[in-house]
Amino acid sequence: MALFKKEEKKEEKKAADAKAGKETKSEKKEEKATLPEPKNIRYNDIILSPRITEKSVKLMDKGVYTFNVLKGANKTEVAKAIKEIFNVEPLKVRIVNFPAKIKRSYRTGKIGRKSGGKKALVYLKEGDKISII
Predict the structure, then answer these.
(1) Please, how many CA atoms are within 13 Å of residue 90, restricted to the half-sphere of its CB?
(2) DSSP 98-113
(3) Is residue 80 within 8 Å of 44, Cβ to Cβ?
(4) From residue 74, how far is each of 79, 81, 120 by CA, in Å?
(5) What is the per-residue pLDDT across 91-103, written as a single tens digit (0 to 9) for each?
(6) What's the burial of 12, exposed, middle or buried (CB within 10 Å: 0-12/13-18/19+)?
């Protein structure tokens, strides 16, 4: 008889929770599935600026262009942004995170930080070019 009493108690508890307005696990899963999608970022916001250094200028001759990109950007977003902005189809995109560095001021001796970021190397076909400068 004790087995039947436990089942009755569980049913009573479920009914009491339903009256009190508590959500069940299945209701919570449905709520998570209906969350609004994040807003789309414009392509001009993904690519921050071209990264012009000695190394990147040498790579431009080989068809590899370097850009500073948004920290949350991924390869597909960068490829779509390059295609929309420059009307060029990238072969591949490589993304590199560069860390923040600690620097000391010569004049005051105080310690500061150079901000880190993310850069994207965009590989193009031999005939394609992007006019940055």
Answers:
(1) 23
(2) E--EEEE-TTT--EEE
(3) no
(4) 9, 11, 9
(5) 999 999 999 999 9
(6) exposed
What are the boundaries of each domain within the chain? 43-123
The H-assigned helical ranges of the chain are: 2-20, 25-33, 43-46, 54-60, 75-86
Where is mean pLDDT largest: 23-27, 39-43, 92-96, 127-131? 92-96
Q: For residue 98, list its beta bridge partners.
A: 117
What is the pTM (predicted TM-score) of this model? Answer: 0.63
**H/E element, 92:** strand 92-98
* 128: nearest Cα among 99, 81, 90: 90
Q: Does domain 43-123 have CATH number 3.10.180.10?
A: no
Report CA 6 to chain centroid distance, whole Å. Answer: 50
pLDDT of residue 35: 47
- 67/13: higher pLDDT: 67
Q: Which amino acid is at 78?
A: V
CA distance 127 to 94: 20
